[in-house]
Amino acid sequence: MSGDLGFIERINISSLTGFVHSTFRRTINIQCKENGELFTIASSQVDNGPNSLVINAASLDEFNIDVNEAVFVKNKMLFISNKLAIVIDKADKWESILPEYPSNTQNVIRNIKKMKEYIDNHGKAGGMKKKLSSQSPYETELSRLLEERTILLEKELLNNRLAHALQHAVSLIGLGPGLTPSGDDFLVGLFTTINLRNSPLYSQQSFCEEVVQRAKPLTNEISYMALKKASIGKVRESIIHLVHSILYGKESDLYLSLNKVLNIGSSSGTDIALGLICGLEANLRVGGQL
Amino acid sequence: MSKINELFNQKLNVINVGIESFKDDLLMQNTEVTHLEWTPPGRGNPDLIAALDLLDDPAIIEKIEAANKLAVERIINSQPVLIGFEKAIDCVPGMTKTTILHAGPPITWDKMNGPMRGAVTGAIVFEGLAKDLEEAAHLAASGEITFSPCHEHNCVGSMAGVTSASMYMHIVENKTYGNLAYTNLSEQLSKILRMGANDQSVIDRLIWMRDVFGPILSEAMKLNPDGIDLRLMLAQALHMGDECHNRNVAGTTLLIQALTPNILKTDFSMDQKIDVFEFVASSDYFSGPTWMALAKCALDAAHGIENSTIVTTMARNGTEFGIRVSGMAGNTWFTGPAQKVIGPMFAGYKPEDSGLDIGDSAITETYGIGGFAMATAPAIVALVGGTIEDAIGYSTNMKEITTSENPNVTIPLLNFMGIPTGIDVRKVVQTGILPIINTAIAHKEAGIGMIGAGITHPPVEAYEKALLALSENIK
Amino acid sequence: MTVQAIVKPNTYFDSVSLMSLSTKANQIDGVEQAIIAMGTEMNKEVMKNVGLMTPEVEVAKSSDLIIVVKAETDDLCESAFMSIDELFTKKDTSKGKSEIKYSTIASAAQGIPEANLAVIAVNGAYAPREARKALENNLHVMLFSDNVSIEDEIELKKLAHEKGLLMMGPDCGTAIIGNVALCFANAVRKGSIGIVGASGTGSQEVSVRIHEFGCGITQMIGTGGRDLREEIGGIMMLDGIKALEEDEATKVIVLISKPPAPSVEEKVLAQIKQCKKPVVVWFVGGNEEKVKQAGGHFAKMSKEAALKAVLLAGAEENKLNKRALNIPLIEEVRAKLTPEQKYIRGLFSGGTLCDEAMHTAMEKFDNVYSNIQRDPNYRLKDKNISQDHTFIDFGDDEFTQGKPHPMIDPSTRISRFIQEAKDPSVGVIVMDFVLGYGAHEDPVGAMLPAIMEVKQLAEQEGRHLEIIGYVLGTELDPQNLEEQVEKLLAAGVTRASSNQNAGLLAREFVVKGE
User: Fold this and answer.
1) How far is residue C44's CA from residue C64's CA, in Å, rounded to a whole number?
2) Mean pLDDT, chain B, as a whole number?
3) Helix, strand, or coil here: A159?
4) What whole-number percentage of chain B has pLDDT above 90?
5) What region holds the CoA-binding domain (chain C) (predicted)?
6) What mean pLDDT, rounded, does chain A reach?
7) Of the candidates B8, B15, B25, which has its C-beta nearest C115's C-beta?
8) Which among C93, C121, C126 has CB closest to B40?
9) Which of A28, B42, C462, C490 gives the lowest tally of CB atoms within 10 Å of its CB?
10) Confidence band of A277 (pLDDT split at 50, 70, 90)
11) Is C59 strand, coil or helix?
12) CATH superfamily of B77-294
């Protein structure tokens, strides 16, 4: 069992009450009354993430937890109604910490190339990656808009004009299929790279926060939470591993960690990975190495 | 695209049979996998496997499936209705003054166990055929008394099942198929004839039942020309927490509620009526036999269908456990030794005091209630010595050896799943899963009575013999 | 044409479910287009652009799930909604079913409609029946069990062939389907090379070499060891080649087996001839000419097979590390061995690994004995007593009777190893250590105390005992490859980088006077 440091501390000081916001087979989201944020209880099959607690259960179905059930903390235990009690004193503490941007970017350039090829072959189409097979008019229009808007965004980023990039980033929010729309996932990847310490774009962090300020009405709460956390560099463990592999890893590390990310959601993982590539290329360009 | 190429493009979803570590390896690779609770079919006996294989021939399977479909349809569509109460001599086919019906497959006096002998001698005294128990035992051994299984006379009898000429019987009519079924009245309490008790108090009660209780019920039902729809009442009782074998609280309340207005309308005295109500109130078991008659009525309608492998009878005489199968028409019994019943005992008794499994009441499980419907009766999980999950598990587990679900009788806790219906001999032998039976425990000695309740299973031999016979019979 | 929409307020489904619902909704009869998506402003904009906007969608919030259906008539829309609702509820019922335990393949197949493959590992006496049940329920089968009669195998394979299903086995220990390793297989990269193998550890070896060369596997189909015998006629291998030929992801096909029966070889070669994709053939001890004539690419050894496959799959030769033999090492070891230390003792847990090493030795020596020698003159008279050059497959039936496979239980091999090490005529002992799913969690560790013991013994007796270890595995396997290799090196064992090299090194070490 393991959990996000902030989440565990919140339980330790008993400042969490709320209700169940949504339930899935492998995760349950809790809406916290104190700060309005979503917190996640995840099954052992899910990786660590910001505001997440991974518990030792393969599936959460068996607890039969319903939406709107009460959540509270007592004696350093987290209760969901009378159905689930989580003792956190044995939980490993985890914190989302992104690696530093390297001074030598040769590895990054090589790995990005490999990563692109891999996504071409194995990434999941339907979101940011275009579907090649026949599409309905809705899908065609969707991928047209996604493509058009990412190209505009990329162009501004590569030229380090983040003020211009803002509107294009916002135009991606809530766009696309899935629980977390593809546009949002792409931005999660992008934000991650802007939050890499020592990276050329690191100073432009406020860009992410500005985008997020406009995001709330444009997407659902679950996706919004992911964006909000990513805007300050807090992302899931699997994304951190991937970033680490890209920056410092061998080819085999890269594929392993990339595969884990590609397996997130349906097309979400692929969308996130493409967001990472976009951001890293912008970093390389701005840093004068591409 | 070929099926193999389809597989290449699908997410693997594996059924794992045998070595369990292969399942763990698949889980490690995030692959969906289901590990079977597998045991060698027919306990690994080559003859049985050969028989299963014979029955697996596509042409034969088709025949069996069609026959079983019909059999199960008949069980499900049967609408048993309680239409009256009469003395056995007046209604039961083949009944004579010197006939004693008993539970289970055929048995002779010399092989009967303690409780069965106690009940037989008590009944002989009750019928006035002997002046005391000693003389009764002598008579029973003499060959003057005709012993015959209840089941071979459209009857069922709980525990010893001993049924004699002047006992009052439920009469249950199958409104769908027209056949009738009978069973005698509950003696309530624990020190009773059917449990092997036979002292004067037992005989006196039987006399009162013959002279007052039976006649009042009989009169009352004559005032109710429509009869009482038992299937509807059973469905209701299950929704109220009975499994209608070992828990009959709700069913008894419903039954007496339906009988009461007409009991009040009869010409009997107020004191006699009060006695009747007090007697019914003295034990929850009053409706127990009623459900047995219902089950018998439905299952008889499904008996004798050529090529069917559906079990239509499970019954025990305290020495042997016998089953009958639809596809083996008439009175072909397949037997094995009666089993021990495991469960909590009344204070003062020990497991070694228990008589072996006895009674026709397993007809309820054959129909799909009792142990099969354990999930409806969480209140008696103590009987199973387990948790509510275990109880639910019993009901879902029985689906592995049954053919269908009865949509007329449902289990709320399992999302209103119908009770598991139509035990298939093939599936029992193939899976090694035996039907689960809730039942009472009688003392092994004659004359004592009920000392506990619990659960048991049939001997697998009965099913194996039936399978071998079926494989020879179905061509 | 009409467009209707339903909005489910505050409804969340995970993306994978949404995708699969959406795909299924589009397959419903009468539906021209169906969309299931979160009601964000941007998604609504897309709908507007393609004329799917309705008043309901207009007011939907970003936390609402919207379902839009376009169909010919209102009635069709209605019935589509009903079917979509069913899809949603189906998901709900499947929730509760995870608890259900199944006792038969038939009931499990019925209860889990998504099930597509049965892995069967029960006693051989019951195995054919279970396999047949699986095929009858349209499940592909991997039959791990051995001791299945040849008649049963024929029947099962014919049934599977008719139904277009995989019938891998009996006695099939290795397969990789959809990148998932089944029974005994290694974790290898996904790639463009497909394998059909009648030899379990042979397939494992080639898949691991391909992985090491930086390429990967699409599918690895096991056929069971007898598939290419006269009676079976190669049913599974022929079907496997066909399936891989039709598989888009597969660019190169590799076949692995002992030499087939002549009539079967003909069929396989005929299929290679008409196959549109390049086929690499490694028939252990097989004939090069025939394969070449059929247009196939012949490989004499395992690494060679992997190398040919990756080159055909587009790998650049000059970038590969082919791990050539360490020639100076050979000289060094030869110098250490006395003239009496003449013989190789190969102690293998993998049958094909043993076979390959044995064939390597047979190229230079006549007196090569084994429990799996095809020539009865060179079969060991007593499997427990070695003779001249001896290669033992501990996975062969006579060693596994009533015992687990040596890849799981190394005990038999350990005691034999000590016995061989004491023999003064032995120059080199060569052993395989197989990693991967299903295999022992620490095969090297299990052998280590024995290695230490004999090394010490040999030292006391003043002779050098050369031990070659080959660890078959990848860095992705559940065991730690690096750690296993380090343990070997620390114990003074010579590490071979492939089974091919293990066989060659063993042979070269004991060649005298070249």
Assistant:
1) 12
2) 93
3) coil
4) 80
5) 190-283
6) 90
7) B15
8) C126
9) C462
10) very high
11) coil
12) Enterococcus faecalis V583 domain (3.90.1710.10)
Test mutation, A179, A216, A257, A261, chain C, max C CBs within 10 A: A179
Please, which pLDDT band fits residue C229 given cuts at 50, 70 and 90?
very high
CA distance to B89, B98, B206, per residue, from B166 (Å)? 6, 11, 10
List all residues 6 or more positions away from C363 whose beta carbon is below 8 Å from its beta carbon: C507
* CATH class of the domain defined by C191-322: alpha beta
pLDDT of residue C7: 87
Q: Number of H helices and number of E strands within chain C?
A: 19, 19
Contact between B363 and B337 under an 8 Å Cβ cutoff? The reply is no
Torsion angle of the four alpha carbons A93, A98, A102, A107, in this order, in degrees rounded to the nearest 10: 90
What pLDDT shows up at residue C93? 40
* Bridging pattern class, strands C466-472 and C494-496: parallel
- pLDDT score, position C97: 37
Within-domain flag for A173? yes
* Residue whose pair of structure tokens reads 């505009």 in the numeric block: A152
Output the six-digit token pair for A47: 């990786």
DSSP string, B238-286: HHTT--SSS--HHHHHHHHHHHHHHHHHSSS-HHHHHHHHHHHHT-GGG
Q: Which residue of A has its CA nearest to C35?
A: A138
Residues in chain B: 475
Amino acid at C418: I
Q: Hey, which CATH number is domain C106-171, 3.20.20.70, 3.40.50.720, 3.50.70.10, 3.10.580.10? A: 3.40.50.720
Cis bond leading into B351, ω under 30°?
no
Pick from B12, B15, B23 the residue to mutate for testing the C interface (most C CBs within 10 Å).
B15
Mean pLDDT of C409-422: 92
Residue C355 CA to residue C373 CA, distance in Å, equals 8
How far is Cα C306 from Cα C295, in angstroms, rounded to an integer?
18
* Cβ B85 vs Cβ B168: under 8 Å: yes
Please tell me the distance in Å from C115's CA to the nearest CA on chain B.
5
In contact, C184 and C174? CB cutoff 8 Å = yes
Q: For residue A31, what are the domain limits? A: 2-94
| CA-closest candidate to residue C362, choices C377, C349, C350 | C377
Is A79 in the same domain as A126?
A: no
Q: A206: Cβ–Cβ under 8 A, 6 or more apart, which residues?
A: none
Nearest-angstrom CA–CA distance, A121 and A273: 14
Q: Which of A62, A137, A130 is nearest to A270 (CA)?
A: A130
* 3-state class (DSSP) for residue A144: helix
How far is Cα B330 from Cα C204, in angstroms, rounded to an integer? Answer: 60
Round to whole Å and give the CA distance between B298 and B154.
Answer: 11
Give the span between the Cα atoms of C237 and A90, in whole angstroms: 52
Q: C130: which chain B residues are within 8 Å (Cβ-Cβ)? A: 17, 38
pLDDT of residue A134: 62
Q: Which helix (H) or strand (E) holds B412?
A: none
Q: Which residues of C357-381 are buried (b: 16+ CB within 10 A; e: fewer)?
A: bbbbbbeebeebbbbbbeeeebebe
Query: Does pTM surpass 0.80?
Result: no
Which residue reads 């060891």 in tokens? Answer: C225
> B378: exposed, middle or buried (C-beta count within 10 Å: 0-12, 13-18, 19+)?
middle
Say yes or no for a CB contact (<8 Å) between A174 and C47: no
Which amino acid is it at C442? Answer: D
Two structure tokens written together for A217: 């009405």
Q: Which CATH superfamily is domain B54-73+303-473 in?
A: v583 domain like (3.90.1700.10)
Contacts of A141 in chain C (CB under 8 A): 46, 49-50
Q: Is the pLDDT of residue C103 over 90?
A: no
Pick the CATH number of C2-97 from 3.40.50, 3.30.720, 3.30.450, 3.30.70: 3.30.70
List the alpha helices (DSSP H) in chain A.
5-12, 106-122, 137-158, 162-170, 182-194, 206-215, 221-231, 237-248, 251-262, 268-286
